[in-house]
């Protein structure tokens, strides 16, 4: 296996954590920019990410955060996310229109162009690797702490990488970005 290791004769192998099939999981939605995290949302157990949930629990909180930070309503505000059903609903589109948010188009089936997929969630997963939590809430709290501690430089680097990837894909007829 990929996580095998050699040990010296007579030494004990380190304890290995196992992910159980029934282990609790949570879904995160994160809105972030080149300088900061704007909103981190964890979907409660038993709840689905419907367009109503996306608008009320995610986008609405994002708008409140931006208003609290005095973002100018005169400047266009661009947001980017993938093509999940809840993201493309008429309910979501109406909310974006109402609050003058401009969605940046995202090509289908291209996780290589989503900064959250090619950077953020991998970074978070790496930081959480080997951690064990007694509750989902404890995991969410730790994940939020990790996300909020990401430096502005790392966020900017991820966004610069996103622009480079988008340019490359555009210049290469929509081909997948080479990893």
Automatic annotation (TrEMBL):
Please, which domain of life does this record's source organism belong to? Eukaryota
Q: Which InterPro entries match?
A: RNaseH_sf (IPR036397), Transposase-MT_Hybrid (IPR052709), Transposase_1 (IPR001888)
GO molecular-function terms, A-Z: nucleic acid binding
Coiled-coil regions, chain positions: none
Matches recorded under Pfam families: Transposase_1
Q: Which PANTHER family does UniProt cross-reference here?
A: MARINER MOS1 TRANSPOSASE-LIKE PROTEIN
Output this protein's name: Putative mariner transposase
Which source organism does the UniProt entry give? Answer: Streblomastix strix
